[in-house]
């Protein structure tokens, strides 16, 4: 196993203890449903009453502000679904509702997820004017055959156009690829990845294809009609990904996310550093701390039901539960260890009210799955990262 | 109550497994109007969850029926539905001693099976009058005439007046009720004036009611307020309630000779109620005790340990209560280096073991580890002393042993002709020695002598699968024979797991070791490191497998919305880990301990 040892990241947003406060807004509609996707996304052939949704978002934002208290926002993320189907005015209205609720300093990261199939120059310009300064494009693959297999509405040419336009219009941009596709060889993927890095700005998200329950791929997979790489092959692909990206200056700062040092996504770091975030829109999750108590919020997932609920009572929240210390400790651990910078052990101890099991930690250290960085940080080594879920399960007990 | 003895009938329903006893009980309950239609369901007497899930009867059950016969008279019928599986034969024996007659049910499409014979002999032993009943005549494959011939030929019972019924559709069942009244005898003797003498037939623990005791009154009267004495255990209690089961529990004034019913008496010591004991009046005791039941002879032993050592007391409580309900199960405390405190338990067979284990975990919410089942070995030591070995982990040093003996059984197997070949091979592979083979029509009846330790694990399962369910099996322990047995240990990641060690015949050791290692390889999940699994005799490794290390186990995508989902998964994993035991850093799921012993296709 040859994995590049990566230099310690010099993050643009070093973890000084405050993980920030992010605002996530979910746009639950897509032009078509991709066969692998289990996100809360719906297709509406009859069109969508965007004004009504804007009003709904605004009401829920006000309500989340009540729950969170006054905060300074460190990032905003418009995700989906396909937020690039929103009219620029809609985006603008949502962003100004957020600015009306919390303090939004100038220049913070504002990301919008975009599908290459719904990219138009005019629209992009509109988003930019509305305040979006970063886009994340769902490119997924750089060959037409695989794009068709993934059920995507765009082809490689469309993706290239979208990438170019995004780079012209926004200060920052990233794109997503899905790999570990059926029959994908390490060579083929490495070549595709090299090409992608050539088009990339300073951030890439590289996900292994996951067969999610309830999707068409799940049914095909179960019936034996769709074969994904086995664990050994998936491991080889993962390792090749780490090597290639590191060599080209885009090392992983999280399991599947790569950036030039300093170009990490502020918003997603908040998730992994287990900061607070308000989750707005259908099926959005949030974590909000008040007076030392941490609450997990979930909203109604079905878009129209969510809307009716918001209109009737001001928010679409279906669940708001306080997390006990064990639950918080688990979440902090499983999110934190995903990061290259690792887990702030002192913070974990103060949340959990105990120390990590020394025998288990020692065992994992000796096996070379984790390492200590000074006294306060614990992180996975490259061989630990690839079995992270097992490492977490071992440490969590 | 005032039913004259002549108008009481006590009878058991006996048969081979699945021949329709419980379904016939349903029809009898229904046709005598003992339950409202809306309260009826299939196999209503199989009340336990495990019974319903597996579709088999495990516990014998008693119901009192009121029947107006065609002679214009009113009768009280006490029915006992019994289990058919060989592992529960103790339930049958107990039930028979509370009755004077039996309905011998035979599936008219399958005919006489091994347990048909075994149960018939048991009923004859108990001096029962027998009414043969051919069931399932609604099936196209039913051949009542041929089966009648078979009954006469194989078991020498007059089948000319056997009843032909379908317990499912109800056809012929009214004639069964009439036959019970006309052909089965009323309880013999019994005098109300004599001192109380009652047989303790069964007992169980009810969460709401406490200990409930089922009795059959022989002499005298049992009533509320009376102080009774259990003659065997010498415990005395004041009776709080007496009643009958219809199948609801209905309180009555008293129980008289010939009657079967329950009593409750604020019994605290579970050990005070011993099935087979004689219950009498404390002030005016009967002179003679009833012969009682032969104690059950456990043939398979295994250790049961709580996964969480802190649950030991809860387990002690649970085995006590279960034993109250299942007299064929026995236990004593045991301690193990790896597993801490637990119980060495004895069972009538592997199904029995499985059921007890499942009942303990379900009814008492306990997580258990069961060690490898073992039979009882006899040993003569070099110094002349004799040892009984219940647990392979206690095997003395080989140098000190003069001779090891193992129990042998005589097995009777009935099978359709076409499966004979594979069955002969199975018996041969298990060191069997053929004693007899004969034909009943196109069915072969095989008699084999087999070492019990080759049978306890999965012989029955294998037999069923190679005969597609058609072969039936019954056995009795015959004798102990000297044998060349060795202790095989299993090492996981270099550490011996004593719960998996076993005694095997030297000639079979290597194959057995390979099988075990292969099985464990599938049963133990991959870990972050590779895990060697070895089978060894003394210091010599005879088989080895390696579980490769986890190559990749990481969730690719995990954002804000996934935190909850991932946490819940983690909580499940943590709970799962609590149900495992660690041996040499390896988590072994509890199911693995028994599953490892079931040999695969050979
Ligand atoms: N076709 C048909 N099926 C029947 C009849 N009687 C019982 N069965 C079926 O046979 C199966 C076994 O019936 P049970 O009544 O549970 O048999 P059992 O003898 O009590 O079984 P154990 O208690 O496990 O020994 C069930 O699926 C019944 O529905 C019958 O008269 N006709
Ligand atoms: C919120 S999704 C959708 C973004 C946008 N709608 C699109 O599809 O272009 C973000 C990313 O998750 C990844 N993704 C979604 N489902 C996946 C799956 N089953 N396996 C791996 N990656 C997946 C895709 O790369 C996708 O771009
Ligand atoms: S476009 Fe994106 S969100 Fe929509 S279905 Fe496809 S992957 Fe899912
Ligand atoms: Mg039954």
From TrEMBL, chain A:
Probably acts as a heme chaperone, transferring heme to an unknown acceptor. Binds one molecule of heme per monomer, possibly covalently. Binds 1 [4Fe-4S] cluster. The cluster is coordinated with 3 cysteines and an exchangeable S-adenosyl-L-methionine. It comes from the Bacteria. It holds the Pfam family Radical_SAM. Belongs to the anaerobic coproporphyrinogen-III oxidase family. HemW subfamily. Keywords: 4Fe-4S, Chaperone, Cytoplasm, Heme, Iron, Iron-sulfur, Metal-binding, S-adenosyl-L-methionine. InterPro entries: Coproporphyrinogen-III_oxidase, Elp3/MiaA/NifB-like_rSAM, HemN_C, HemW-like, rSAM, rSAM_sf. GO terms for biological process: porphyrin-containing compound biosynthetic process. It comes from Pararhizobium mangrovi. Gene3D superfamilies: 3.30.750.200. Residues 15-248 form the Radical SAM core domain. This is Heme chaperone HemW. SUPFAM superfamilies: Radical SAM enzymes (SSF102114). One of its GO terms (cellular component) is cytoplasm. The keyword Chaperone applies. It is found in: Cytoplasm. Its main location: cytoplasm. GO terms for molecular function: 4 iron, 4 sulfur cluster binding; coproporphyrinogen oxidase activity; metal ion binding. Signal peptide: none annotated. Coiled coil: none annotated.
TrEMBL record, chain B:
It is an enzyme of class 3 (hydrolase). Residues 6-188 form the Tr-type G domain. It is found in: Cell membrane. It is a peripheral membrane protein. GO terms for cellular component: plasma membrane. InterPro entries: EF-4, EFG_III/V, EFG_V-like, EFTu-like_2, G_TR_CS, LepA_C_sf, LepA_CTD, LepA_IV. Keywords: Cell membrane, Elongation factor, GTP-binding, Hydrolase, Membrane, Nucleotide-binding, Protein biosynthesis. GTP binds at residues 18-23, 135-138. Its EC number is 3.6.5.n1. It catalyses: GTP + H2O = GDP + phosphate + H(+). One of its GO terms (biological process) is positive regulation of translation. GO terms for molecular function: GTP binding; GTPase activity; guanosine tetraphosphate binding; ribosome binding; translation elongation factor activity. It comes from the Bacteria. Belongs to the GTP-binding elongation factor family. LepA subfamily. Belongs to the TRAFAC class translation factor GTPase superfamily. Classic translation factor GTPase family. LepA subfamily. Required for accurate and efficient protein synthesis under certain stress conditions. May act as a fidelity factor of the translation reaction, by catalyzing a one-codon backward translocation of tRNAs on improperly translocated ribosomes. Back-translocation proceeds from a post-translocation (POST) complex to a pre-translocation (PRE) complex, thus giving elongation factor G a second chance to translocate the tRNAs correctly. Binds to ribosomes in a GTP-dependent manner. This is Elongation factor 4. It comes from Pararhizobium mangrovi.
């Amino acid at each position: 196993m040859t994995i590049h040892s990566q230099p310690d990241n010099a993050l643009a947003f070093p973890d000084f203890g405050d993980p920030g406060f992010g605002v996530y807004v979910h746009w639950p509609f897509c032009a078509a449903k991709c066969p692998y996707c289990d996100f809360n996304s719906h297709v509406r052939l009859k069109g969508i009453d965007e004004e009504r949704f804007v009003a709904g978002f605004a009401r829920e934002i006000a309500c989340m502000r009540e729950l969170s208290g006054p905060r300074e926002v460190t990032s905003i993320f418009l995700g989906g679904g396909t937020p690039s189907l929103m009219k620029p005015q809609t985006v603008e209205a949502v962003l100004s509702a957020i600015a009306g609720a919390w303090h939004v300093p100038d220049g913070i990261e504002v990301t919008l997820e975009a599908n290459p199939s719904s990219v138009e120059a005019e629209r992009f310009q509109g988003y930019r004017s509305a305040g979006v300064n970063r886009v994340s494009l769902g490119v997924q693959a750089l060959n037409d055959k695989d794009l068709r297999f993934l059920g995507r509405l765009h082809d490689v040419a469309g993706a290239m156009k979208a990438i170019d336009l995004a780079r012209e219009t926004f200060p920052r941009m990233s794109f997503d690829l899905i790999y570990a596709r059926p029959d994908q060889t390490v060579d083929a993927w490495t070549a595709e990845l090299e090409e992608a890095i050539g088009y990339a700005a300073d951030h890439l998200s590289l996900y292994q294809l996951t067969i999610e329950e309830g999707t068409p791929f799940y049914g095909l997979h179960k019936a034996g009609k769709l074969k994904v790489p086995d664990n050994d092959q998936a491991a080889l692909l993962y390792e090749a990904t780490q090597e290639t990206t590191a060599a080209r200056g885009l090392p992983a700062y999280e399991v599947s996310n790569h950036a030039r040092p300093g170009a990490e996504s502020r918003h997603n770091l908040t998730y992994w550093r287990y900061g607070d975030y308000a989750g707005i829109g259908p099926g959005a999750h949030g974590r909000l701390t008040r007076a030392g108590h941490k609450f997990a919020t979930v909203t109604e997932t079905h878009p129209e039901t969510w809307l009716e609920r918001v209109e009737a009572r001001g928010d679409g929240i279906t669940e708001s539960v306080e997390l006990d210390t064990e639950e918080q400790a688990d979440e902090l651990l499983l999110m934190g260890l995903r990061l290259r910078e690792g887990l702030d052990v002192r913070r974990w101890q103060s949340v959990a009210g105990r120390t990590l099991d020394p025998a288990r930690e020692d065992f994992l250290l000796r096996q070379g799955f984790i390492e200590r960085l000074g006294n306060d940080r614990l992180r996975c080594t490259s061989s630990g990262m690839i079995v992270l879920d097992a490492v977490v399960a071992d440490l969590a007990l | 109550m005032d039913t004259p003895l002549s108008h009481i009938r006590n009878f058991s329903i006996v048969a081979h497994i699945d021949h329709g006893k419980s379904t016939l009980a349903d029809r009898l309950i229904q046709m005598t109007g003992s339950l409202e239609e809306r309260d009826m369901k299939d196999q209503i007497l199989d009340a336990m969850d495990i019974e319903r899930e597996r579709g088999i009867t495990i516990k014998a059950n008693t119901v009192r029926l009121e029947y107006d016969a065609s002679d214009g008279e009113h009768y009280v019928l006490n029915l006992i539905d019994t289990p058919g599986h060989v592992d529960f034969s103790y339930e049958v024996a107990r039930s028979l001693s509370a009755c004077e007659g039996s309905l011998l049910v035979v599936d008219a499409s399958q005919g006489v099976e091994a347990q048909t014979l075994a149960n018939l002999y048991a009923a004859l032993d108990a001096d029962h009058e027998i009414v043969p009943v051919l069931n399932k005549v609604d099936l196209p494959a039913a051949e009542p005439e041929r089966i009648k011939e078979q009954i006469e030929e194989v078991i020498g019972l007059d089948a000319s007046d056997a009843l032909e019924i379908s317990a499912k559709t109800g056809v012929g069942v009214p004639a069964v009720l009439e036959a019970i009244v006309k052909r089965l005898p009323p309880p013999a003797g019994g005098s109300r004036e004599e001192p109380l003498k009652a047989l303790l037939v069964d007992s169980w623990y009810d969460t709401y009611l406490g200990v409930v005791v089922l009795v059959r009154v022989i002499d005298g009267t049992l009533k509320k307020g009376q102080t009774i004495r259990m003659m065997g255990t010498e415990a005395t209690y004041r009776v709080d309630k007496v009643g009958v089961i219809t199948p609801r529990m209905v309180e009555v004034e008293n129980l008289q000779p010939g009657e079967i019913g329950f009593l409750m008496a604020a019994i605290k010591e579970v050990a005070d109620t011993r099935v087979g004991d004689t219950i009498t009046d404390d002030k005016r005791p009967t002179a003679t005790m009833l012969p009682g039941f032969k104690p059950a002879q456990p043939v398979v032993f295994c250790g049961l340990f709580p996964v969480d050592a802190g649950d030991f007391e809860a387990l002690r409580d649970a085995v006590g209560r279960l034993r109250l309900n299942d007299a064929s199960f026995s236990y004593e405390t045991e301690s193990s280096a790896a597993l801490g405190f637990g119980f060495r338990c004895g069972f009538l067979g592997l199904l029995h073991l499985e059921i007890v284990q499942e009942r303990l975990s379900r009814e008492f919410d306990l997580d258990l580890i069961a060690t490898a089942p073992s039979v009882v070995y006899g040993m003569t030591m070099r110094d002349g002393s004799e040892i009984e070995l219940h647990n392979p982990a206690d095997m003395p040093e080989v140098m000190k042993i003069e001779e090891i003996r193992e129990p042998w059984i005589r097995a009777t197997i009935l099978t359709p002709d076409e499966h004979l070949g594979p069955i002969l091979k199975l018996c041969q592979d298990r060191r069997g020695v053929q004693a007899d083979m004969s034909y009943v029509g196109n069915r072969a009846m095989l008699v084999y002598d087999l070492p019990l330790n080759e049978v306890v694990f999965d012989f029955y399962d294998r037999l069923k699968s190679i005969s597609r369910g058609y072969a039936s099996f019954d056995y009795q322990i015959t004798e102990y024979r000297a044998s060349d047995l060795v202790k095989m240990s299993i090492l996981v990641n270099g550490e011996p797991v004593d719960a998996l060690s076993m005694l095997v015949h030297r000639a079979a050791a290597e194959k057995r070791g390979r099988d075990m290692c292969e099985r464990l390889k599938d049963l133990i999940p991959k870990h972050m490191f590779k895990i060697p699994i070895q089978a060894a005799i003394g210091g010599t490794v005879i088989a080895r497998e390696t579980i490769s290390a986890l190559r990749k186990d990481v969730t690719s995508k995990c954002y804000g919305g996934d935190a909850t989902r991932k946490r819940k998964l983690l909580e499940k994993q943590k709970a799962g880990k609590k149900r495992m035991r660690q041996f040499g850093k390896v988590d072994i799921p509890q199911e693995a301990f028994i599953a490892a012993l079931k040999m695969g296709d050979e």
